[in-house]
Design brief:
Elements: H1 2-5, H2 12-21, H3 68-77, H4 88-92, E1 95-97, H5 102-105, H6 113-149, H7 155-187, E2 196-198, H8 199-233, H9 239-312, H10 318-379, H11 386-450, H12 454-524, H13 531-587, H14 593-680, H15 686-734, H16 750-812, H17 821-826, H18 832-837, H19 865-881, H20 883-893
Antiparallel strand pairs: 1-2
Helix pairs in contact: 2-14, 6-7, 6-9, 6-11, 6-13, 7-8, 8-9, 8-13, 9-10, 9-11, 9-12, 9-13, 10-11, 11-12, 12-13, 12-14, 13-14, 14-20, 15-16, 15-20, 16-19
Length: 895
């Protein structure tokens, strides 16, 4: 069989034209585009036949004629040149099937595989963002609950705590519902009723997704900021306690963000690995589907050569040969098309069954995971170490996400295996039909037409089978080369992904360092802020920055995916060119000098197109990176606004503190001037001074007496409540007889009953001890709050008595009160929020609540209990010191 030995695959004129025009198609293809750009008319005379019967067929594994099911789509959707798709606008308008699960990808056309899989990767990133956002909300509620438990409370506060938590949960739920509605509306963008979508619509949807997620992130920030005001307004919590709660909440949310960041990095890499695995599985199924087309081409090529030999020998006329070839083409390609239709139809049934099975598994897993979450939260001790609790809760949620991901991966693998089995089943059925066609041709048709004996026809059939096996061997070798090239391409893609991942990490570090440097420089210029205020601002900025960078990291992954989608078509065409080079290099064994030059030119063409593709890829990456940087700038602007507001509140509190100190100093100066004026005044007499001092002491005495009576009455009331609570809790908790106290029948069980009763008594004693300790703790907290309330009232009344004495003395000495207005203004409207903070003193009581500190950016700090005690001692000392000017006045009246 000399025709097998050396088959020149080059036609010099056509090959030279192809390389010059840079047209991609197999060099040994028989039907090529004409020089005027039109196609060979014979190619479209009968689309059901890949090769006309009046021309000899030479099978080529990568012939662009391919199967007839591929010919039409390649003719309209794929260009023969990389430069024909150089226009970004044209490629962005490219449509592909919009799928929602990987099994649906397996029945798509091969030209849409990469785009469909990358689109699924974008959906995976969006689902990951949703899962992490919901975990953040869950952890936020648990952290807030722990912070509220740290506050001292009364019985009536339990319901208020529940209202606070319920409000936060409802706000988060409404926030998530609003976001999901926006995301759903965006998801419908560009699709409508069609199952196809363009790449431009995908990019637009991703931009809108990013904007909506950033808005949601900012809304969550605002909700956190409003907690402090909500506690002060609704819960009547003091400013210092509300501020301390926010400090603790911020610290723990920073720890939660760290856990979420690490989890996001790991699961984003897992999603990338899953996407690469999907590409591998889809390529495997596509290779199995194309196997029947290679089989058809090889068998038809062998039949064509056998009939050509019979025609040369005069056994068949040219017309008979053409008719037989036409019949065989129609039969073989018709069977190949039935294979394709059968695979699509039965493949859709497999996909539906897979989706139903996955939905059922997901529903069961979701119910089990919700039950697991409730069980964990019910058993967890919120008052234990918060860091350990957060770590344990995060591990539970992460394990649940991994279980969901594993379920999806297993379903993908199972469906792929089922598709492979289906391909093999249809392949065997089609091969049996092909063999019947060959048997009918050589054992029934040819003996009557050629006059050959059955033995000769059997020999011809054996030769056809040998020729077919040889053709299939060439095809198998080429398919192995194709698979190796595919593996190389997959490794290159993985390397590009990891490089983009590294660049994204560097970008995050750069953004983080830049923002932190700016904030430190700004705070460094305000030397008046206390260290506590500065630290609180930095902590708040750190929390927001972590959240923003985590969002930008996922957006960067989406940008990388869109870059690969833009380059998918061009990479596919370059891959075809590499496969053609591998085919020509492997099949061409006897080449002259000119043919070797053409092969070298093809190699140079591959290198040139690869270099050009790399340049275009770099330009596309830069173009899409500009979008990421613009979004990073937008997020940075939001961070700046929040940080500016926090710094402004801290500066305002610092200014209030400075003004308060200044007013207090003015008041002390006024009292000193008033004392000197009273000593010098002729209007001040001994009798007048004695009357003022006596009235002042009487007022102080009544205030102290009332305070002592209220204190004793309160202690008595609290003692009674404590006793009643102890009796009630003891009765509720231990009124029922224990199981071990029941009578035991039979003398043989007496020993067991004794042990049971002892164990029950021990448990009862320990439980009583725990209840007793809890009751004591609640009682002490309640007593502390009540004493704090009485102390605030006493301070207010003492300040009122002092101001009344100073006002009367100023009137007696004819000293104008204009100098005391700063103190009076401080006691005016600005005291209202402070008085609210002071546990609602009686409306008639107005006192100096003390000045705010710069530690509270929202409303200024308020004195703690110890500071109020110092102020009370100061007022009592001042009451005693009042004798000094009065004695001076008396001595002046009695020289």
């Amino acid at each position: 069989m000399n025709w097998k030995e050396c088959e020149p695959s080059f036609n010099s004129n056509i090959t030279a034209f192809a390389l010059k025009a840079k047209v991609i198609y197999p060099i040994n293809q028989k039907f090529r585009p004409l020089a005027d750009g039109s196609s060979n008319p014979s190619l479209h005379e009968n689309l059901k036949q890949a090769i006309l019967p009046n021309q000899p067929v030479e099978a080529s594994p990568s012939s662009s004629l391919g199967s007839l099911s591929q010919a039409e789509k390649e003719d309209c959707s794929s260009s023969s040149s990389i430069h024909s798709t150089a226009s970004d606008d044209r490629f962005l308008s490219r449509t592909f099937v919009c799928v929602n699960s990987f099994p649906e990808v397996l029945i798509c056309e091969s030209v849409d595989l990469d785009l469909c899989i990358y689109n699924l990767h974008l959906k995976d990133l969006l689902r990951l963002d949703t899962a992490l956002r919901r975990e953040k909300h869950l952890m936020f509620i648990q952290i807030l609950k722990m912070c509220l438990l740290d506050l001292p409370k009364k019985k009536s506060d339990d319901e208020l705590y529940q209202r606070i938590l319920s409000k936060q949960e409802n706000d988060l739920e409404e926030l998530e519902k609003g976001l999901q509605v926006k995301l759903s509306n965006t998801e419908m963008l560009g699709t409508g009723d069609s199952e196809y979508i363009t790449l431009a619509d995908v990019e637009k949807k991703e931009r809108e997704y990013s904007e909506q997620l950033i808005d949601n992130m900012e809304a969550f920030w605002k909700q956190m900021e409003n907690i402090q005001h909500f506690l002060m307004d609704q819960f009547k919590c003091s400013s210092s306690k509300a501020r301390q709660l926010m400090v603790t909440l911020t610290e723990r949310m920073i720890a939660a963000e760290g856990l979420l960041h690490d989890s996001q990095d790991l699961q984003a890499l897992d999603a990338l690995e899953r996407t690469m695995g999907r590409v591998h599985m889809a390529k495997t199924i596509e290779s199995l589907k194309l196997q029947i087309q290679e089989e058809t081409r090889c068998r038809l090529a062998a039949l064509s050569r056998s009939l050509e030999l019979l025609t040369v020998e005069g056994r068949l006329s040219g017309r008979q040969k053409e008719e037989l070839l036409a019949q065989q083409h129609k039969a073989f390609w018709g069977e190949a098309e039935r294979f394709g239709r059968g695979f699509v139809q039965r493949g859709k049934d497999l996909v539906k069954a897979s989706l139903v099975h996955q939905a059922e598994g997901t529903a069961k897993l979701k119910l089990a995971q919700e039950e697991e979450q409730r069980g964990f939260l019910a058993e967890a001790q919120l008052t234990s170490d918060p860091a350990e609790f957060l770590q344990a809760f995060h591990e539970v949620l992460e394990r649940q996400r991994l279980a969901q991901s594993y379920l999806e991966e297993q379903e993908d693998v199972t469906t792929t295996e089922a598709m492979a089995v289906l391909c093999q089943e249809l392949y065997r059925s089609t091969m049996e039909t092909f063999q019947k066609f060959v048997d009918v041709l050589f054992l029934q048709t040819l003996p009557g037409m050629t006059g050959l004996s059955q033995a000769d026809c059997e020999n011809l059939r054996q030769e056809v089978q040998e020729n077919t096996a040889w053709q299939l061997g060439k095809s198998d070798r080429f398919r192995k080369q194709q698979w190796e090239l595919f593996q190389d391409l997959l490794e290159q893609d993985k390397q590009v992904w990891m490089e983009e991942w590294t660049l994204s990490t560097v970008l995050q570090m750069h953004l983080r360092d830049g923002h932190e440097s700016i904030v430190h420089q700004v705070l460094g210029r305000f030397g008046g802020l206390s260290e506590e205020s500065t630290w609180y601002i930095l902590q708040g900025h750190d929390l927001l920055l972590r959240s923003a960078l985590r969002r930008l990291a996922l957006r960067g992954s989406a940008i990388t995916t869109l870059t690969h989608m833009r380059l998918a078509g061009k990479k596919s065409l370059l891959q075809e060119l590499r496969e053609q080079h591998a085919l020509e290099q492997g099949s061409s064994q006897c080449l002259d000098e000119h043919q070797w030059q053409l092969l070298r030119a093809l190699e140079a063409r591959v290198v040139e197109e690869a270099s050009r593709l790399e340049d275009e890829a770099q330009q596309m990456r830069l173009q899409l990176q500009q979008q990421l940087l613009a979004e990073a700038q937008e997020v940075g602007q939001l961070l700046q606004e929040h940080t500016e507001r926090a710094i402004g509140q801290a500066l305002l509190a610092h200014a209030r503190n400075a003004a308060t100190k200044s007013r207090a100093k003015d008041w002390d100066d006024f009292k000193r001037v008033l004392t000197e004026a009273a000593v010098e005044s002729v209007y001040v007499t001994s009798a007048g001074v004695s009357r003022l001092v006596r009235a002042y002491y009487q007022h102080i005495g009544r205030v102290m007496q009332d305070h002592e009576e209220r204190r004793l009455q309160l202690l008595k009331t609290l003692q009674g409540e404590r006793t009643e609570n102890y009796k009630l809790r003891t009765k509720q908790g231990f009124g029922d007889p224990s199981p071990g106290s029941k009578a035991v029948n039979g003398s043989g069980e007496a020993c067991t009953a004794v042990h049971q009763r002892m164990a029950a008594q021990q448990k009862k004693f320990l439980a009583q001890f725990t209840v007793h300790q809890r009751i004591r703790l609640d009682a002490w907290k309640q007593k502390a709050r009540a004493m704090d309330h009485l102390e605030a009232q006493l301070e207010t009344q003492l300040q009122e008595a002092e101001q009344s004495f100073v006002s009367e003395l100023a009137a007696l000495a004819r000293v104008p009160l204009a100098e005391s207005r700063p103190f009076s203004s401080k006691r005016g409207s600005s005291e209202k929020p402070v008085r609210t903070r002071r546990k609602k003193p009686p409306p008639r009581e107005k006192g100096n609540p003390g000045g705010p500190t710069d530690d509270d950016p929202a409303a200024g700090g308020h004195p703690s209990g110890s500071l109020r005690s110092k102020r009370l001692n100061q007022q009592e000392n001042e009451a005693g010191d009042g004798e000094s000017p009065k004695k001076t006045l008396k001595e002046r009246s009695h020289p």
